[in-house]
Write a structure and sequence with these properties.
The complex is a heterodimer of chains A (268) and B (472). Chain A contains six helices and 13 strands. Chain A has 268 residues and is of the alpha/beta class. In chain A, α3 packs across α4. The relative contact order of chain B is 0.13. Classes of the chains: A alpha/beta (268), B alpha+beta (472). Chains A and B meet through α5 of A and α9, β17 and α10 of B.
C-alpha cells in the first residue's frame, strides 16, 4: 500500500494578524506549523500503516525552501520520505494552479519512487486560505474518485472504506484505488513524534522538485499567470452557532425534551 | 471564638453609604458565594455580599464591619479546594472579581501591578504580549491572582521557577480595622525587619485583604519543548524522577500520572491524545516533562540527552511536542484531570501533600496499600518535580456520612505518613476550614500558638475570614 499525503506549511492561526490596509495575512514573526487538517490526513495514513507495516507513506508539499521544516515534522511523525515542489515559477499560484502543479509533481514522485500511489490524502482545507479546493481539484486533474471530509480510512479488498462527516451524522463511503481523500478533525489528536524519529528527521534528505524536474508541465498553467482567481476582498465569515443535539434515553423522552426546548425558544 | 453581631438594617445602610448600589442581601446574593469548588466541606450563605471595585471601598466596608463585629470573608473566583472562601460565620462576603484590571507594567524593573481580581490566564496572556512570562502556573487558570497570593499557589512550573511567593514584590493591604497599608517594595532584596509581605502570602484572607499586587515577571523563554515518557508501571515512572535532577536537568515542569486518570480526563475532553500501548506493551504511567530555553538549538541537545536517560530508566519511548499545536494538545489532557474527576464522581475530597522528591515512590506505594481498606476510589497525580501530590477520594454510591468518615480516616493516615517522610500537609491548596485539625496535628502546639499570635496581632477582633487556617 502506497499513500501520498499532501501537506502545506501555514502560519499558526492562533497568532494570525490581518494587515488592516492591504487585507492580507501578516506573516512576519508568525510561527509556521503543518496545516492541522493535513496533520489529520497524515494520522489517517499512519493508522493504516499501524495495521499494515508494509505501507509506505510519502509526503509532498509545494512551497518555498522554509516548507522543509513542515516536511521534517511529518517525517518525525510518520512519513517515510518527503518531497518539496519548489520553484519561483510556482509562486503566486491559486488553488487551480497549485492542484495542477501537485498533480504533475505526483507523477514525478511516482516515477522516482518506482511505484504508483494507491491513495492521495489531503487535509480538507488549509487554515490560512480556507478554500477546501485543492484536494478536490487534484482529484479532477488526476481523474481519480474522491471522498471529502474523511475522519478515518480503512483498507478494504479493492479500495478504502472512509468514515466521513456529513451535515447530519457520519457515513461510510467505499472508494476504489487510486483515489483522493480529504480529511477533517477526528476525535483523536494526531500522534506525537518519537525522539528517535525526530532525530532522524533532522538529518533526512528532502528531495526538491523544480519546474525543470516536472516533465511535461505546462508553465502557463502554473504560478501567478496560471491563476484565474482574483481576490477582491477577504473577511472572516460570521460564526455559525452550534446546533443542539437532543439525545435522551428513550424516543419519548427525546420528544419531550425537544418540545420543552422549542416551547422555551417560543418557536411553537 | 469571637462573638459576632447580626447584620442589622442600620449596618446595611452604613455599608450602602460606602458602596452605593453594590450591597446585596438575602435571596439576591449569588448562591455561588456560599462555597468554593469543594462544597463537601459545607456551604453557608453570607448575610451580605458586595462586589467591590476599589481599595477605598474595601477599607470603608471593613471599617464598618470592624466597628460592629461583623465577619468579613474575601473571595475571588471561588476556585479554591479547601473551603477557604466559604463564609462559615455568615456576615459579609467581599468579592474582588470585578477588580480585574492590569494596572501597569514597569519593564525596566520587570514588574506588573494588578488588581486582585485579574485572572491568572489573563495575566499570563497579557504578559506574553509584553515579551514576559509570569511563571506561577497552577492548573486552575481561571483563579484570581488575589486567590493565588492568598494560598501561595504553585502549579506546574514551580519545579523550576518556584511558587507565587517568589513573584510577589509588594502589595496594598486593607487591615481588619480598615486601615490601608503597603507591604514590600519593587526590589529583589530586603533585610528590613519581619516580612509582613510574606505573612500575607498564603494567609488565605485571615490577616488582611489584598487590593493591589505588584508581581515580578521574567523574560519569556523563546523555546519550549515537552517530552512525554510512557512507562510500563508507576514504580518505574516515579523512580525516574529523582534521577532527572541527579543528571542536572532543569525541567520547567515535571508531572506524573497513571493511565487510569488520563482516561478519565480524555473522556471529559472527548478526544484521545496519549498512546496507551507502545510496541506491544501496555502503558501504566506517564511522565510529562517540559524544558524551556532561549532557542530550539539550545534545547535540542538537552532534549536528546534527557530522552536517552529516560529510555535507560525504562521509558517505553519518548514522544516530543515542540510546536504550538502539539504543546497545546499534550497539556490539555493534563490540565483537565480535576474536571474529569468532578464530572465522573458525585463525592470528591482531596489533599495536596508534599513530600521530598526522593520519597515520592515509597509514599505512593503506601497510599496504594492503604486505599484498599476503603470503599471509595482513590485517584492521584502530581507535580513530581516538587513532590507535590494531589490525591482524590471519589465515590458515586457511598452515603455522604460514610464517605466523609472514611475520607477523614484515610487523610489522617496519609497526612501522618507525609509528615513521617518530612513533608507538609498542603503544597499549594491551603488549609481553609477543611484541613484545620490536620494542620494542628501536623504543626503541634508551639507552632500553632505562634500562628494564633500572628492572627491576633493583625486581627484582634477576629473578623477576617474567621474559622480558617487556625481556630480561635
Amino acid at each position: 500500500m502506497n499513500i501520498l499525503v499532501c501537506v502545506k506549511q501555514v502560519p499558526d492561526t492562533n497568532e494570525i494578524k490581518i494587515d488592516p490596509v492591504t487585507n492580507t495575512l501578516v506573516r512576519e514573526g508568525v510561527p509556521s506549523i503543518v496545516n492541522p487538517f493535513d496533520g489529520y490526513a497524515l494520522e489517517a495514513a499512519a493508522r493504516i500503516k499501524d495495521k499494515d507495516p508494509d505501507t509506505r507513506i510519502v509526503v509532498l508539499s509545494m512551497g518555498p525552501k522554509q516548507a522543509e521544516a513542515a516536511l521534517r515534522e511529518c517525517l518525525a511523525i510518520a512519513a517515510d520520505k518527503a518531497y518539496l515542489a519548489t520553484d519561483r515559477a510556482f509562486g503566486g499560484s491559486d488553488t487551480l494552479a497549485t492542484s495542477y502543479i501537485l498533480s504533475r509533481a505526483i507523477k514525478k514522485v511516482e516515477e522516482l519512487e518506482g511505484a504508483k500511489f494507491d491513495a492521495i490524502f489531503c487535509g480538507k482545507q488549509a487554515i490560512d486560505g480556507d478554500t477546501a479546493q485543492v484536494g478536490p481539484e487534484l482529484a479532477e486533474h488526476l481523474n481519480y474518485p474522491q471522498v471529502t471530509y474523511g475522519l478515518e480510512a480503512a483498507v478494504a479488498s479493492d479500495g478504502l472504506h472512509v468514515l466521513r462527516e456529513a451535515e447530519d451524522g457520519n457515513e461510510v463511503i467505499g472508494v476504489q484505488f487510486p483515489c483522493v481523500v480529504t480529511f477533517t478533525k477526528p476525535s483523536f489528536d494526531p500522534r506525537f513524534p518519537t525522539i528517535k524519529r525526530k532525530m532522524a528527521a533532522r538529518k533526512a534528505q528532502i528531495t526538491a522538485l523544480t519546474a525543470a524536474d516536472l516533465t511535461g508541465i505546462d508553465l502557463t498553467r502554473a504560478g501567478l499567470k496560471g491563476s484565474p482567481t482574483k481576490v477582491k476582498r477577504t473577511f472572516v465569515p460570521p460564526r455559525k452557532q452550534a446546533g443542539v443535539v437532543v439525545k435522551e434515553e428513550t424516543v419519548e423522552a427525546s420528544a419531550h425534551r425537544l418540545f420543552e426546548l422549542l416551547s422555551k425558544a417560543h418557536v411553537i | 471564638m469571637a462573638n459576632y453581631n447580626a447584620v442589622t438594617p442600620e449596618i446595611i445602610a452604613e455599608l450602602e453609604k460606602v458602596a452605593p448600589g453594590k450591597v446585596v442581601t438575602g435571596k439576591d446574593i449569588n448562591p455561588d458565594y456560599s462555597h468554593d469548588e469543594m462544597p463537601v466541606y459545607g456551604k453557608k450563605m453570607p448575610d451580605v455580599s458586595i462586589d467591590v471595585t476599589s481599595t477605598e471601598e474595601v477599607a470603608g466596608i471593613v471599617k464598618v464591619c470592624y466597628e460592629h463585629n461583623i465577619p468579613v470573608t474575601t473571595r475571588g473566583a471561588g476556585t479554591g479546594l479547601v473551603g477557604g472562601c466559604t463564609p462559615i460565620h455568615g456576615g459579609v462576603v467581599l468579592c474582588t472579581a470585578k477588580m480585574n484590571k492590569i494596572l501597569s507594567y514597569d519593564l525596566e524593573d520587570f514588574v506588573v501591578t494588578v488588581q486582585p481580581g485579574v485572572l491568572l490566564q489573563q495575566l499570563a496572556d497579557d504578559a506574553l504580549k509584553h515579551g514576559c512570562m509570569y511563571p506561577p502556573d497552577p492548573g486552575e487558570k481561571l483563579a484570581t491572582l488575589g486567590g493565588n497570593v492568598s494560598t501561595n499557589a504553585g502549579g506546574m512550573r514551580a519545579v523550576k521557577y518556584g511558587t507565587t511567593r517568589e513573584y510577589v514584590r509588594s502589595m496594598t493591604v486593607v487591615l481588619p480595622n480598615g486601615e490601608v497599608t503597603k507591604f514590600g517594595a519593587t526590589v529583589s532584596k530586603t533585610s528590613s525587619g519581619y516580612s509582613l509581605l510574606n505573612l500575607i502570602i498564603g494567609s488565605e484572607g485571615t490577616l488582611g485583604i489584598v487590593t493591589e499586587i505588584t508581581l515580578k515577571l521574567i523574560p519569556a523563554p523563546q523555546a519550549t519543548v515537552s517530552l512525554m515518557a510512557p512507562f510500563e508501571n508507576l514504580d518505574a515512572c516515579i523512580s525516574t524522577v529523582p534521577k532527572i535532577f541527579q543528571h542536572h536537568f532543569q525541567p520547567q515542569a515535571l508531572e506524573f500520572f497513571e493511565k487510569e486518570i488520563l482516561v478519565t480526563s480524555e473522556k471529559y475532553l472527548g478526544k484521545e491524545t496519549f498512546p496507551k500501548k507502545l510496541g506491544g506493551t501496555d502503558v501504566g504511567a506517564y511522565l510529562l516533562i517540559t524544558f524551556d530555553g532561549n532557542s530550539m538549538d539550545e534545547l535540542d541537545s538537552i532534549v536528546e540527552k534527557a530522552s536517552e536517560m529516560l529510555v535507560e530508566e525504562g521509558a517505553l519511548d519518548v514522544l516530543v511536542a515542540d510546536t504550538a499545536p502539539k504543546l497545546k494538545d499534550i497539556w490539555a489532557a493534563r490540565s483537565s484531570f480535576l474536571d474529569g474527576i468532578n464530572e465522573q464522581f458525585k463525592l470528591v475530597d482531596e489533599c495536596d501533600v508534599v513530600v521530598p522528591v526522593s520519597k515520592i515512590a515509597p509514599y505512593v506505594e503506601y497510599v496504594d496499600e492503604i486505599k484498599r481498606k476503603y470503599e471509595f476510589g482513590v485517584k492521584y497525580f502530581g507535580h513530581a518535580g516538587d513532590g507535590n501530590l494531589h490525591i482524590y477520594t471519589c465515590s458515586n454510591d457511598m452515603p455522604v456520612d460514610k464517605f466523609n468518615k472514611q475520607t477523614e480516616e484515610f487523610l489522617s493516615a496519609i497526612y501522618a505518613k507525609a509528615q513521617g517522610f518530612g513533608g507538609q500537609i498542603s503544597g499549594e491548596h491551603g488549609i481553609g476550614f477543611g484541613k484545620i485539625h490536620f494542620l494542628e496535628e501536623a504543626l503541634g502546639p508551639v507552632n500553632i500558638g505562634l500562628m494564633k499570635g500572628i492572627k491576633k496581632a493583625f486581627d484582634p477582633k477576629l473578623i477576617l475570614n474567621p474559622g480558617k487556617v487556625v481556630s480561635l
